[in-house]
Design brief:
The chain is of the alpha/beta class and 203 residues long. It has one domain. It has seven helices and six strands, in the order βαβββαααββααα. A hairpin with a 2-residue loop joins strand 3 and strand 4. Helix 2 packs antiparallel against helix 3.
């Protein structure tokens, strides 16, 4: 069993607080794979900054991915062009940001190829973002579900769209901040596209 590590869920383009925790507890990071899929969490949604404020990008999942489906088995629903909508959203919101073009081609891959499994999709994007952030985390995965991990800091339920982030965040430049001010704890893409290689210093 790891000591002084963190247990994290597998999110879609996770919020800044996720990477703050991951960076704090690296290299001992355990990723939850066997929890029952909870609805309305960052596991299949990310928050970005639009000219009108907050926008949630939601990855649709196949019906039946309800409370008794282990997250590792949840399938993405590709019945409509959600990838096109997400990519158009990211482009329109961050085209003016300082570093969008720097990362654009790498992210585009995830919106032009069809993916089946949500966990695998999230995992591939997470590994890419960790590489961009230069965070040397050794990700390990749970092999069954446990309600408690006494030796780990458990973030499975605390990082949630409905919870106010306890993380103290200093403002950084955001493209539309003159409209709504600084928005805390958005998806890591907001930090990455605005701060680029300086993102790790911010975390």
């Amino acid at each position: 069993m790891m000591e002084k590590g963190a247990l994290l869920p597998m999110f879609y383009l996770p919020p800044v607080s996720y990477f703050t925790a991951l960076n704090q507890f690296k290299p001992n990071i355990l990723i939850e794979k066997y929890e029952h899929f909870p609805k309305q969490t960052y596991r299949n949604r990310a928050q970005i900054y639009t000219p009108d404020g907050l926008l949630q990008l939601v990855v649709p999942v196949v019906k039946g991915s309800k409370i008794h489906t282990p997250f590792k088995d949840v399938k993405i629903s590709n019945d409509f062009a959600w990838q096109r909508l997400h990519w158009m959203g990211l482009q329109s919101c961050y085209r003016r940001s300082a570093y969008f073009e720097f990362y654009e081609d790498d992210f585009a891959h995830f919106y032009h190829k069809t993916f089946t499994n949500l966990f695998d999709y999230n995992e591939s994007m997470l590994n890419m973002v960790l590489k961009f952030l230069k965070i040397p985390a050794q990700l390990e995965y749970t092999d069954e579900y446990h309600r408690e991990y006494p030796q780990l800091s458990d973030f499975r339920n605390s990082i949630h769209p409905k919870n106010e982030a306890t993380l103290e965040q200093k403002p950084y430049f955001q493209v539309f901040e003159e409209r709504k001010g600084f928005l805390k704890n958005l998806s890591i893409v907001d930090l990455l596209f605005n701060q680029g290689p300086q993102s790790i210093n911010y975390l």
